Amino acid sequence: MILSLSAPMADDSVENWMTISHQVDGISLNTGIGLGRAVLHHPVGTKVASTREDFGNRSQKAQLIQLDQAFVHLADEIQAFISQQSTSPSTKTQTQMQAQSAKVSRDILDVHLLLARDPGWKRQLRERIREGMSTLDAIDQALQSIRERLERKGTQPHWRERISDFEDLSGRLKRHLTDSVGVLENEDGDSPIIVVADRIGPAELLDYDRSRLVGLVLVEQSHTSHVAIVARSLEIPVVGGIKTLLQEINTGDSLLVDGNEGRVYIRPVREVVRRYDAQFQFKKTRHLGLSEAVAPLMARTLDGVSISLLLNAGLVEDVDHIEAAGAEGIGLYRTEIPFMMRPKLPNVNEQVKLYQEILNRAGRHPVVFRTLDVGGDKVLPYLERLKSESPIKQRRTAARIVFDRPILLRYQLRALIRASVGTELTIMLPMIAEVSEVQAARELLDGEINREKEKGNPVPTNIRLGAMIEVPSLVHQLPQLFPHVDFLSVGSNDLFQFFYAIDREYPKLTDRYDVLSPTFLSVLKSIQEQCQGAHIPLSVCGEMAGRPLESLALIGLGYRTLSMSAPAVPLIKTMIRRLTYQEISDYMAGVCVPSQANIRQNLRDFARDHGIYCE
Ligand code: PEP
Ligand code: MG
User: Fold this and answer.
1) Which of 311-315, 391-395, 417-421: highest mean pLDDT?
2) Which atom of ligand 1 is nearest to the CA of 542?
3) What is this structure's pTM?
4) Range of 228's domain?
């Protein structure tokens, strides 16, 4: 599988992120996820115009000999594809469907071989050449007459596919005659590739380096098209039916093909790739059977302390994993992710639909909706104001939007209220730096609720408003903040970066400091103690909550609610079930010596000495 953050990404320049990253929807022709560089497919033989004249000047005899040779090469080439298919090992994990696809794909190539050896086709071509036509014109004319003949037979997919087989073979034959540049001319390096084509024949697809081919995107194709069948046997995701494809994609663009949802992300921003990566990791975890075993078990320590494990989600499909992962609900739904996947700002109705779908998928499980958190690495291409600002200035504008563009938040709150009628609505505000920002947001929320009531519309049964602690200034205002919030959640990713004045996107800097430093842990401890004293529910939803060693520390500091990506849940739950709370609590109280850079090794020793799986 190819999802990794080191895979090709949209150009890092802010301008490019803003202008061209977007999603297009088509239909799924094969499942799976692929991330790679686009290679625009030119059908073989379409680049032979310049040699057409040369052919006209060749003697008939020379052309006939060359035609015979080209047929031999064509048959050899297809035979080679067939041999490769037969020798590629069928893995133990190959499903019945994949095995079936492989068989059908082999049958298609067998038919191609038969056609390539068909004496009738060759005879037609030879006759035309003898009548004075050049070989290339003869191939085109023969193809046209075959096309017309097959079209007369009917419009069923079967005949269309046969036409496409002849198109594929005719193109290849021309290539053998002209040695014209092959399909891979634009592609270099060894990074994963995604082939983008209007039409492509199955054998043409096999021309691409299979070790690098990770996806296929088509303008128009059906489930039963030969190329889709061959792609299925290669186990690559395929999305078809995207009419505007060739205008939107250039060779070299980074593409993320989601064959499960029938969607293609053109120049996906880092955040979108990250969410897909988390999904992929979760599926891998499930594949290994890790989550099945622990999903139904409680996240409870040996001495009976229950820890609430929640999911961080951003893709609508993430929500489906709550039960499979063994989590209790969604502790952080990043609403900016679906916003980032659209070419324009979703209106209130579109947002209502989206939030309703999330709530439906979550079923009885609670969902914490975080309001839009944009800026920095999370860019909405259509937010004009951000485009003109420098990367530093536009870094995280989330809370400031409340003041700068209150309409954005008002529409989002309105949609959340309408989507949650008859149920509880939980809203979390990101990037809060001042208590007044929560008050401003609360006023907008109250305004929206009153607006709905005045219109006679029903409202949610209960609304909870919380904030993230991720700007250090807020840590110093907790007593003043408490009366205005129903809950709090530590966004350790941002709190850490702003605490140490580093940039979370640049590992060189982030590696220099550690979330397990006594200094940072003392901040987390202070937050926990203050919230506990004020009876304010508190969680951690930054990445550290999903890492075993870090979550061990958090539990030792008294945190009882952790929100993380789906693949982390089984690991953290396993760790908790082997842990004695009192022991880690006592240990943490004694281990945080300020002069130490971090307590990572101490925690490793603790885990080893207590038989806790923690890596
Ligand atoms: C965080 O900052 O820790 C957090 C959870 O929010 P995000 O990663 O979306 O900024
Ligand atoms: Mg954050």
Assistant:
1) 417-421
2) 3
3) 0.67
4) 14-43+184-286
Last residue in a domain, options 286, 313, 347 = 286
Sheet with 238-240, side-by-side order of all strands: 22-25, 263-266, 254-258, 33-40, 193-197, 213-218, 238-240, 27-30
> Is 470 a pocket residue for ligand 1 (Cβ < 6 Å)?
yes
Q: Is 494 in the pocket of ligand 1 (CB under 6 A)?
A: yes
Give the largest CA-CA distance in the chain. 97
Is any ligand 1 atom within 6 A of the Cβ of residue 491?
yes
DSSP label at residue 418: H
481: nearest Cα among 535, 430, 527, 435? 435
Distance of CA 566 to the CA centre of its chain: 14
Residues 219 and 128 grouped into a single domain: no
Co-location of 280 and 328 in the same domain = no
CATH number at residue 95: 1.10.274.10
Pair (27, 83) in one structural domain: no
Which of 339, 428, 470 has most ligand 1 atoms within 8 Å of its beta carbon, as the pocket-test mutant?
470
Model pLDDT for residues 151-203, shown as the tens digit of each residue: 888 777 777 788 888 888 888 888 888 764 344 444 456 788 999 998 787 77
- Report the b/e string of 358-377 with b at 16+ CB within 10 A: bbebbeebbbbbbbbbbbbb
Ligand nearest to the CA of 545: 1
Binning pLDDT at 50, 70 and 90, where does residue 396 land? low
Please report, for the domain that includes residue 261, its CATH number: 3.50.30.10
How many residues make up the chain in this entry? Answer: 615
Closest CA to 17 of 396, 340, 252: 340
Residue 614 inside a domain? The answer is no
pLDDT tens for each residue of 578-588: 999 999 999 99
Ligand whose nearest atom lies closest to the CA of 270: 1
Tell me the best of 368, 373, 493 to mutate to test the pocket of ligand 1, counting ligand atoms within 8 Å of each CB and taking the most: 493
Is 169 found in the same domain as 135? Answer: yes
CA dist 330 and 321 (Å) reads 10
Q: How far is the CA of 373 from the centre of ligand 2 (A)?
A: 8
Ligand 1 centroid to 277 CA: how many Å?
16
In angstroms, the CA 518 to CA 531 distance is 20
Q: What is the distance, to the nearest Å, from the Cα of residue 431 to the centroid of all Cα atoms in its chain?
A: 25
DSSP state of 567: T
Tell me: do 352 and 278 sit in the same domain: no
CA 36: distance to chain centroid? 12
Say what percent of the chain tops pLDDT 90.
Answer: 40
Query: With bands split at pLDDT 50, 70 and 90, how would you rate the model's confidence at 615?
Result: low
What is the distance in A from the centroid of ligand 2 to the CA of 338? 16
